[in-house]
Amino acid sequence: MSLSLRVLCIVGAAATFLIVTNSIRRSRMRMDDAIFWVAMSLGLVIVAVFPNIATILSRLLGFQAPSNFVFLAVIAILLIKLFTLSTEVSALKSRVNELAQEEALLSSDVEELHRDDDGNRQSNHV
Amino acid sequence: MRILAIIPAYNEEACIEQTVRSLVETCPDVDYLVVNDGSTDGTGRILDEQTLAHVDLPINTGLASGFQTGMKYAHRHGYDAAVQFDADGQHLPEYIPTMARALEERDADVTIASRVLAGERLGGARGIGSRLISSLIHLTGGVRLTDPTSGMRMYSARMIRLFAEGYDLTPEPDTIALIARKGGIIVEVPAHMQERQGGQSYLDLSHVIRYMARTCVSILLFQWFR
After folding, report:
1. How many whole angstroms separate alpha carbon B159 and alpha carbon B143?
2. A112 vs chain B: nearest CA distance in angstroms?
3. B63 shares contact with chain A (CB less than 8 Å)
4. pLDDT of B121-144, one tens digit each?
5. According to DSSP H, which parts of A1-65 are helical?
6. How many structural domains compose chain B?
7. Ramachandran bin of B54, using left for φ above 0, alpha for ψ from -120 to 50, beta for the remaining angles
8. Are the beta carbons of B80 and B157 closer than 8 angstroms?
9. Rg, C-alpha atoms of chain A
10. Distances (CA, A) of B1 to A98, B42, B100
C-alpha cells in the first residue's frame, strides 16, 4: 500500500468521523445507524496504520496489489450496506402505508360514531 | 350478496362526483367506498360536501395501498365481494351485477370485465402489452385471459381477505397471475368501457415502461418466491 493511499484512508476516516458526530449533534442520525460509519472509519484507520494486514490478506487471496484488496473490500461492505438500507426503506414504506390506512379507517369509524351520537341526541330532544 | 365497490381516487376532482352518482343510480344495491389517497386537489372537499362514502388517507400511498385500504374496509364489514372501480368514469356500473352473477354461479375468486370479449380491439402498444401479459399469465398460471390489464375486477370474500392481510399485493395483472397459479378460479365477462371522463392519465412513457417491467418480472420471477 502506497503512502499516499494510507494518508487518504486516514483523511477519509477523519472526515467520515466528523460528519457522523456532527449528524448526531444536530439530531440528524440515530446512534444505532451511526455505529456502522464509526466502525467503517475505524477500519480504514487500522488498515492505514497497519498496512501489513492488507498486504498479507491480499497475498493470501491472490490479489496483485494490497490496494486492490482494500478497494474491493470497501465496495463489498458498501454494497451490503446499500442492500440493507433498501430492505429497511421497503419496511418503512409498508409501515407508513399501514399507519396511514389504519388512520383513515379509524377516523371514518369515529366520524360515523359522531354522526350516530348526534342523531340519537336529536331524537331524544324530540 | 353484499358487494362493495372500491373507488381509489388520487386528484380526481373533475369526475369523482359524476362517477359515484352514476354508480349509485345504476346499482342502488351496491355499496361503495371512495378511498381518497391523499389528494392535493379538491377531491376531499367534494367528498365531504356531497357526503359521499369515503375514507381519507392522510398521505399519498399509491394505488396498491389505497386499494388495500378498501379491501380492509370490505373485510372488516363482512362483504361477500368487492369490485375495483376507477374514479375517472372509465368503468360502467351496469356490468357489476353481471360480474357478481359470474362470480357466484361459477364459484370464482376473480371476475374480470373484458373489453375483448365484448368485441373491442385493444390497438397499438396497449394491445401488444396486453397480449404479452396474457401469454405470461397463461405460461405461469395456465389460464387464458383476453383482457388481463382491464382495471375492473371483482373479488370473492376469500380474495378480500387475501388483499386485506397480504403483503405487497397490487390490484394488477401480476396478482391475477399469482392467484391463478395458486389455484384460484378466474373468469371473464364481456364488458365495454368508456374513455376517461376527466382528470389526467398516467400513461406516459416512463410509467408504461415501469409498469411493464414490474408486471413482467413479477409474473416471471418474483411470484415463484411468494
Report:
1. 17
2. 10
3. no
4. 888 888 999 999 999 999 999 999
5. 3-25, 31-49, 51-61
6. 1
7. beta
8. yes
9. 27
10. 29, 34, 8
What is the distance in angstroms between the Cα of B80 and the nearest Cα belonging to chain A?
Answer: 19
Q: Which helix (H) or strand (E) holds B114?
A: strand B110-114
User: pTM of the predicted model, to two decimals?
Assistant: 0.89
Cβ separation A104–B69 shorter than 8 A: yes
Residue with cell 411470484: B223
- Residue B85 has φ and ψ, to the nearest 5°, of -130, 125
* Contacting residues of B for A94, CB less than 8 Å apart: 167-168
**A19, A9, A94, A107: which is closest to B57 by C-alpha?**
A107
Per the structure, the complete domain to which residue B123 belongs is given by 3-225
Residues in chain B closer than 8 A to A96 (CB atoms) = 59, 61
CATH number at residue B97: 3.90.550.10
Residues 6+ apart with CB under 8 A from A4: none
C-alpha cell, A55: 498486504
Contact B109/B156 with Cβ under 8 angstroms? yes
Cell of B117: 370479449
Nearest residue of chain A to residue B69 (CA atoms): A101
User: ipTM of this model?
Assistant: 0.89
Per-residue model confidence as pLDDT tens digits over B75-96: 999 999 999 999 999 999 999 9
Return left, alpha or beta for B41; rule: phi > 0 is left, psi -120 to 50 is alpha, else beta.
beta
Hey, which residues does B8 pair with through a beta bridge?
Answer: B35
Hey, what's the cell of B56?
A: 381519507
Judge: A100–B61 Cβ closer than 8 Å, yes or no: yes
On chain A, the residues whose CB falls within 8 A of the CB of B59 are: 96, 100
